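[Automated response] Your request has been received and processed.

Submitted sequence:
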Amino acid sequence: MPRSGRMPPGAQGALVSLDRDGAVKAMVGGKDYVSSIYNRATQAVRQPGSAFKLSCILPRSKPGTSPRISIVDEPVTIDGWSPRNDPRRNSGAVSLRTAFAYSLNTVAAKLGQEVGFTTVADMARRFGITTTVNTHPSMVLGTSEVRVIDMTRAFASVASKGVAVTPMASPA
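Generated structure:
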């Protein structure tokens, strides 16, 4: 396979695909098990970035509430920290669905402050994050390190209607 000009030599990657019952559909822990038995899908930790915003939205989305609930995307400052959205503009009133789809940092920060950063960390653990999750305001932007398999597990749990899943070997 040709190497991309932007890929550094020796670069590795990871991928995990889970079914909503937790069955592992695919897992890649690196490019060559013979040269490195380190499984980047289950062992390596990285900052998840905006994927972590799921843990901010879920505590606000109680059973029976609509993802169309409105929240105002506006400048916010929490303990001297002022997150900004990527395009450096605010959209005013938006739905939770829109805020998640467009990865609005200010909305994630407001939600974290509203429900409590400890609640956000507890939600992340409830959905399968096994690493330590800090409770600083910036945590809503995915600054705590997680494993790829744990983040995938969190999203599979949402697909399973909020029931936490445990990764397992997929039946043949």
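Summary generated for your ticket: The beta strands are 15-18, 23-28, 45-46, 70-73, 92-95, 146-147, 168-169. The chain has a mean pLDDT of 89.
If you did not submit this request, please reply to this message.
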